Amino acid sequence: MPTRKKLSIIIILIIISIFYYKFEDYSDILRVCFLNIGQGDSILIKSPQGKNILIDGGPDANLIHQLGNIHSYQNHQIDILILTHAHADHYIGLIEVLKRYDIKLILWSGIDAHNSSYLYFKKLTKDLNTKIAILGQEYLIETNLKIKILYPTYYLKEDDTDLNNTSVSLILSYQNIDFFLAGDLTCEGETKIIKQNLNIQAEIYKVSHHGSRWSNCDNILDKIKPRLAIIQSGIDNQHQHPHLETLARLEERNIQILRNDELGNIWIHSDGEKYWIETP
């Protein structure tokens, strides 16, 4: 083989290796990406030892392209997939994920939507390991990294008609840094969490329901006491999220606000003692 051709092959292999290790740099750093997927939610959590947790999928197939850019070409495993609730702006993007990724565990609320796209989503999960999330469950992802389910506080029934209030809500804890993540939970659901009298303080708060005025109420903000709030809403969305009332509540408490519609993807990195922000 000519020397020049050998050299070209070596260079290609080096580039592939750099690409792989760039995205699979196992260390003591937790990486959480609040994905910019328009008017919807999607959060990718990459553990220090390379586990992948995906919460929601946004309203369309944009998610699958973003995951392709973030993961290495060899990484097609999702260790835990969480669907907070059965609204299209949270599950549609997961359809292609279910087709292309190896899913180890699915957590969901147990309450279905009754439309063709959701029924197709459920069909794809039929042979996978699924579990209904409920208050008190804990999942140890690896040393010092765990998920604690806060809501639902009881097994829901079909007559729990407000799908927003079926949102699986949790705290992600990495040593001394906590993330509070509650889908589209409204003030009613937030009050049910507070009544459990749990310690739910968290440094990072994913603003519920894209910044709706009917969520993120004073009592939950005063209980969580976050330093940073992240809003997942789309540019010029029809719901006018985030609402001014929610922004005012956050600003009154001197909570730093970051928004996907303004910044694109938002990465939060943590070593368990502190966190730092990375945006494009």
Explain what the structure shows.
- The chain has 280 residues and is α/β, with parallel strands linked by helices.
- It has one domain (27-278): Ribonuclease Z/Hydroxyacylglutathione hydrolase-like (Metallo-beta-lactamase, Chain A), CATH 3.60.15.10.
- The chain has 9 helices and 17 strands.
- An 8-stranded mixed beta sheet has the order 8-7-5-3-2-1-16-17, with no helix packed on it. The chain has a 7-stranded mixed beta sheet with strand order 9-10-11-12-13-14-15.
- A hairpin with a 5-residue loop joins strand 2 (43-46) and strand 3.
- The longest helix has 21 residues, at 3-23.
- The termini are far apart.
- Mean pLDDT is 92; it is low at 16-23.
Please write out the topology:
Blueprint: H1 3-23, E1 30-34, E2 43-46, E3 52-55, H2 62-70, E4 77-78, E5 80-82, H3 88-91, H4 94-100, E6 102-103, E7 106-108, H5 116-124, E8 130-132, E9 138-142, E10 145-151, E11 169-174, E12 177-181, H6 187-194, E13 204-206, H7 218-224, E14 228-231, H8 244-252, E15 256-259, H9 260-263, E16 266-270, E17 275-278
Parallel strand pairs: 3-5, 4-6, 5-7, 7-8, 12-13, 13-14, 14-15
Antiparallel strand pairs: 1-2, 1-16, 2-3, 9-10, 10-11, 11-12, 16-17
